[in-house]
Design brief:
This protein has 276 residues and is α/β, with parallel strands linked by helices. It has helices at residues 20-24, 31-45, 94-108, 117-132, 137-141, 161-165, 176-183, 196-201, 205-230, 235-252, 257-270, and strands at 5-15, 58-73, 76-87, 111-114, 158-160. It contains 11 helices and 5 strands; from the N terminus they run βααββαβααβαααααα.
């Protein structure tokens, strides 16, 4: 299958405190106490090594994505940016958010691009979709044994950059921020993932979405550089894709100040050298 679109995505989550009574029998209704109980449970089952909740115990509060059209010229690809946006608006519950994501995915049928999406984002989305009874048949049934969204090595179906860049675990799996710091992309600035629960408690969903969108932009920039290195993009195609990103930011930065801050951080990280 030759995908016509890229779909670069990222999610933000908070611990699912509703699951605590069934998980451990802890009945206290205080949210902070239940989050502490989830951490205690995960420390217990990992012999004190890791308090981070496993994938089913994450409630999705925002999903951001970038869509780009794939254009082919022989063995080369070029990408034309269509949009960058988020779900997770005030008043949306998790079920509606997931229905929107999987409904859009089923219609678009794109190539997925993520950073640790195979290890975290997509498993979380699957578990939470199962919780709410949301189908995603194309995700599971498209393709064949070797070429599908569920095939780990099918980079043209789902390119999890963390997995691909580590040669599927042959070398250390690095963080998105680490890759960005070397190449000259903005990486993390302002908010980080550890702050999401606090922002959610304060009702600051807009700040969470803004943070998620900057992660998506960083992921897309790393993907473009990866595809240039892989020989799938020409230098001219890479530069045109970068120009698309900058044009989108320039057009949107007044309404979406976090994009202007991203461009400023990008300029500082790259010494204002955006193309190659």
């Amino acid at each position: 299958m030759r995908h016509q679109s890229l779909f670069v995505f990222d999610i933000e989550t908070v611990p699912d405190t509703d699951a605590v009574p069934a998980l451990t029998g802890f009945e206290d209704t205080d949210v902070a106490a239940r989050r502490a109980e989830i951490e205690r449970y995960h420390l217990d089952i990992t012999d004190g090594r890791n308090a981070f909740p496993r994938q089913p115990f994450h409630r999705v509060v925002a999903i951001s994505f970038l869509e780009a059209e794939i254009e082919r010229d022989g063995t080369f690809e070029a990408y034309h940016l269509r949009e960058l946006r988020s779900g997770g608006e005030a008043g949306f519950d998790e079920k509606q958010l997931l229905q929107g994501f999987f409904g859009y995915f089923e219609r678009l049928r794109p190539r997925l691009v993520s950073f640790n999406g195979r290890g975290f984002d997509l498993p979380v989305l699957k578990y939470r979709a199962m919780k709410h009874g949301i189908p995603a048949s194309h995700l599971h049934q498209a393709g064949d044994k070797w070429n599908s969204y569920t095939s780990r090595y099918a980079e043209d179906w789902h390119c999890d950059l963390q997995d691909v860049l580590s040669d599927h675990g042959a070398s250390a799996r690095v963080r998105l921020n680490e890759v960005c710091s070397v190449i000259g992309f903005p990486g993390k600035f302002g908010v980080d993932g550890a702050q999401v629960a606090g922002l959610f408690d304060e009702g600051r969903l807009g700040d969470i979405r803004d943070y998620c969108e900057t992660d998506v932009l960083n992921t897309y920039l790393v993907y473009l550089r990866h595809m240039l290195h892989r020989g799938t993009m020409t230098p001219d195609g890479y530069n045109r894709a970068i120009a698309d990103v900058i044009a989108l930011i320039e057009a949107e930065k007044e309404k979406r100040p976090h994009l202007g801050a991203f461009l400023d951080a990008w300029g500082a990280a790259s010494e204002n050298t955006f193309t190659i």
